[in-house]
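yo

u said u wanted the structure for the complex thing, so here. seqs first:
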Amino acid sequence: MDNDNITVVVGHSAWNDLQLIGAELEKAGIALISTVSNGADLMDQARSLGADCVLFSPTLPGMTPGLVQELLVGIDDSIAAVGLLPAGSSYAAEYQRHGMKGFVTTPLDTVQVQRVAPLVQEAVRMAAEERQARSFAPVSAEDALSILDRGGWQQQTIAVYSSKGGVGKSTVASNLATALGVLGQRPTLLVDGDMSRANVHTFLGVDIDAEPRNLFALYERVIARGNRSGSYVVQAQTLQANVRAYRGKLHFLPGIPKMHMAGLPEFIEDSDRTMDIFGEILETAKGFYEFRVIDVGPDFNLPIHWAAIQKADTVLLIVTPERTAITDVKNILPTLAREFGTLQKFRLVLNGFDEKFGISPKEVIKFLEGKVTIVGTLPYAPTETRLAINEGQPVAGQKKLAPIGEAFVRLAANFYPPLEAIGAKRGRVKKKSGLLSMFVGD
Ligand SMILES: Nc1ncnc2c1ncn2[C@@H]1O[C@H](COP(=O)(O)OP(=O)(O)OP(=O)(O)O)[C@@H](O)[C@H]1O
Ligand SMILES: [Mg+2]
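structre next:
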C-alpha cells in the first residue's frame, strides 16, 4: 500500500508525543485522521472512518487488549494496531498476543519517533496479509484495563474558527472553556474575539450591558498607555482589570459589545498594531491561564481574527454536516497551508452530526483528502444547545451531562486528559455508548 493512502487514528493523550507523531506521519505522507482519548472512541473512530491502523496507548481509559484484537478481525476490514507503550511497562507481551503489530516506547525520543511511520506501514501490510491468509487465530480477550493516563498535557491557546457563520463556533468555544475551567478546574480564559458579532456572554448568561470590562476597554487602555510611553505592552493588572471571573477557574474577556465599535481605527486600519496587541494580550494571559480559548469570527481579513489564528497553538475548524460548510473548509485549507507551512495545528470538530443528514465523518475525511485530523464529533442536539443559550448555562457545565455535554467533555479531554475520568463521574441524563456508534451500522 502506498503511504499516501494509509490512514491512522491515534489514541494517546501525552501532548508532546502527539505533536511528534503528527509531524512524523505527515512527513511520511500518512494521514492522521482522528485523535481520541479513550478506548471506546478509538474503536468507533477507527471503524467508522475506515482507518488502516491505530496507534494506541494501553493507558487510555477503557483500552484493552481485546480491542486490538477486535479491530484486527473486524467484519469488513483489518485495522492494524501499533502500541505507544510507556517505557519500562509490561504491556507488550499481552498486547502482542492479541495481535498488536509492533510498538514504540513513550515518551518518544528521536529514535523512537522515527520508527513510527515505518511501523505503521509494516503493521498495515502484515494485517492485510494475515487477513488474506485467514490464518490468524487470536486468543480470547482479557479483562479491561482502565488506567487513567497521567501523561502530560500542553497548556495552550485554542482558537475556535470557521469561515462559515452559524456552525457552532461560540457553542464550541464556550463549552470547551467550561469543560476545562469549571469541570477540569484548570485556570482558563475565554476570549470573545468575534469582531462581527460578539455574543459569547449570552452563552454564559453574562449581562454585559453594564459591564465596563471587555476587549475594547482593554485595547483602549493599552493604546492610551502606549501612546504615552511608546510601547504597547499589556500589563498583568491591565489584563486582570478587564477580565471577569465566571465559574470555577474560568475567566471571561467579553468582546466588543456594540457592533459599531469594531469599526474604530484601532480594529481595522492600524492592523499591524492591532495584531501585535492581541498577541501581547495572549502572551500576558499565559502567565495566569493554562488555557486560552478564543471564539474567532469568520472573516480572517480582520486583524484580531487573523492574529488569533496565527497565535493559536491549536485551531479548531468547526464543520457541520452540510456540503456548504465542508466546501468552505476545503477552500481555506490551501491558504492556511501556504501561510503556516503545515496544517498540523488545525483540527476538525464535526458539529451537529447525525446519520440522517447523509454525510458521515468518513466522507468528510475523504472530501478533505485526509489533510486535517478530527479531534471531536458532537451530535446534533438542537433542543439542548438552544435551551443552554436561553438558560445562559453551557451544556458542559450542567449538573447532569446530556450526550452533547459528554461529547464536549471528551473534546476537552484531548487537551486535558483527566477530564475523561472527571466527565465519567458526572451524572448523566442518559447513558449512551460510543459517540459514533450510529455510523458503525449496528
Ligand atoms: N450540536 C448542535 N446541534 C444542534 N444545534 C446546534 C449545535 N451546535 C450549535 N447549535 C445551534 O446552532 C446555532 C449557532 O450556533 P453558534 O452561535 O454557536 O454558531 P457560530 O458559528 O458561533 O455563529 P456566528 O457565526 O453567528 O458567530 C445556535 O442556535 C446553536 O444552538
Ligand atoms: Mg458565534
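Residues 134-151, 430-442 have pLDDT under 50 and may be disordered. The two ends are 29 Å apart (CA to CA).
cya
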